[in-house]
Amino acid sequence: MQYYVYILASKKNGTLYIGVTNDLIKRAYEHKNDLAEGFTKKYGVHQLVYFEQTSDINSAIIKEKQIKKWRRQWKIELIEEKNPEWIDLYIELVK
Predict the structure, then answer these.
(1) Of residues 26, 52, 30, the one with CA closest to residue 41
(2) pLDDT tens-digit series, residues 30-69
(3) How far apart are CA 9 and CA 48, in angstroms?
(4) 0.85 exceeded by the pTM?
(5) Nearest to 51 by CA among 65, 64, 32, 38
(6) Which residues contact 42 (CB under 8 A, 6 or more apart)?
(7) Which residues neighbour 48 within 8 Å (Cβ) at sequence distance 6 or greater?
């Protein structure tokens, strides 16, 4: 099974959300369509701007917790390293 650490954004340089899942397309869809109560619905955080994949759930959870503790600028640099235009990667995943 594959696991994903992902970052959602409300817009470029906007509000960020970091999560972990084993079904990235489904989870991103849920966030995009406000199907889950909570932070992303409250703050309109719907764009998938970063993700990384692993086959180990423990390493995914550790990575998620590490990123959450990072300074905001480090999170932005992580996103821009792979996605400098802050394109919504969900669109690419569902093609």
Answers:
(1) 30
(2) 999 999 899 999 999 999 999 999 999 999 999 999 999 9
(3) 7
(4) yes
(5) 64
(6) none
(7) 6, 7, 8, 24, 28, 31, 88, 89, 90, 93
Alpha carbons 57 and 84: distance in angstroms, whole number: 27
Going along the chain from its start, the domains and CATH numbers come out as 3-93 (3.40.1440.10)
Judge whether 8 and 47 are in contact, CB under 8 Å. Answer: yes
| Percent of residues in the chain assigned helix, strand, coil, to nearest 5 | 45, 20, 35
Dist. CA 75–CA 58, nearest whole Å: 21
